[in-house]
Model the fold of this input.
Amino acid sequence: MEQLTALGLMPFACDRFFDTEVNTIEFFLSLRPEPDTEKAIASWQGMASEAKGFIHKASKSSRQPARALSSIKAPLRAISARFRSSSAGKS
Done:
């Protein structure tokens, strides 16, 4: 989400984050419009820090949440690359 915000694709900040319960895959986010990109990025960085803390605690019993997070990196990189290439063609 941080990358999407930095690219200007998502003008929202993370307002609230409800973490995943142990041995589940469901979490909840509350978003709010945020015109200031730096504030929006900071909100996603804060949420990521909270989630990483949870993954560290849960990793003792299960590696599934860590694998789930790593599985979204490639699609985000692909979106970012497409956005950069389409933006470069407009210059």
In short: DSSP finds four helices and two strands in the chain.
